[in-house]
Amino acid sequence: MTRLYVHPLPVRVWHWVNAFGFVALILTGLQIRYRVFDALPLKAVIDVHNKIGFLLIANYGIWLVYYLFSDRICVYHPELSPRAQYRAMLRQLIYYGYGLFKGRPNPHQVGIYRKFNPLQSMTYQIVMILLVPLELYTGVVLWDLQRFAGTVDLLGGPRVVSSLHVALCGVFVVFLFVHVYLTTLGHTALEHVKAMLTGYEEVEDAAAQAPPAQTPAASLS
Ligand code: HEM
After folding, report:
1. What pLDDT sits at residue 207?
2. Which residue's CA is the closest to the ligand 1 atom numbered 35?
3. For helices 9-34 and 42-68, angle between their N-to-C axes, nearest 10 degrees
4. Backbone angles phi, psi at 81, to 5 degrees
5. Alpha-carbon distance values, 182 to 61, 108, 186, 191 (Å)
6. What does the pLDDT read at residue 220?
């Protein structure tokens, strides 16, 4: 077994602030939209929701700046051949749905520069480059509809923006359940969570740990 430093500090800080922040945003968002708990004053809940939202925008900046200036950004490089991507995703899906229960080895070997399996890599790209920015952006627009009146009109009005914001929240709730379940599928249930806390993952094969040739050699980790 080899210990690999797969999650650098800025990624870990971003991740846990983001995780707790998202859960808080979902709960306060439910209260704002559906008044689940009668006792809570709406104005205070909106205030907390907005503050956490702005905190997560700043936090997203940590993730973005870190990856933009680090050679670790190659963990987010997309597979340019759709055929290769779908085959690899299918292999990973078959492992999760069948091989795992038969005790077969995971088809993906974790490495510093390829820490995500094909399913994670595609999902995390969509989540981080599209869904999270869109959720934060629609949140900012809803925070001050007058200031962003032009954008609101362009997007089809406050109802459309609000529906988009809530629909994305629904996607995050589903993502959260699937994401947390998949993180329990290591050698032990908490192996990946511990790695996201300490930065280190235990792997069996330490092959291919060198950075890909086209990326700068220096890493910020
Ligand atoms: C309590 C909730 C959460 C837990 C326990 C959790 C756990 C983890 C763990 C263990 C990893 C390591 C890699 C892996 O195994 O997939 C990870 C990575 C990741 N998680 Fe979460 N997560 C949570 C919430 C979230 C939320 C709310 C989001 C986004 C909205 C998110 C987005 C990500 C992303 C993008 C990565 C890859 C990060 C990177 O290395 O760049 N997670 N998560």
Report:
1. 53
2. 124
3. 150
4. -95, 110
5. 26, 14, 8, 11
6. 38
Domains parsed from the chain with CATH numbers: 2-203 (1.20.950.20)
Convert the pLDDT of each residue in 147-176 to its tens digit. 999 999 999 999 999 999 999 999 999 999
Residue 103 main-chain phi, psi, to 5 deg? 75, 20
Determine if ligand 1 sits within 6 Å of the CB of residue 221.
Answer: no
Hey, what are 23's tokens?
A: 């859960």
How far apart are the C-alpha atoms of 67 and 90, rounded to whole Å?
28
The position carrying tokens 């005790």 is: 103
From the CB of 22, is ligand 1 less than 6 Å away?
yes
Q: For ligand 1, atom 11, name the residue with the nearest CA.
A: 196
* R_g of the chain computed on alpha carbons: 20
Cα distances from 109 to residues 31, 144, 177, in angstroms, run 42, 46, 24
Structure tokens at 46: 């909106």
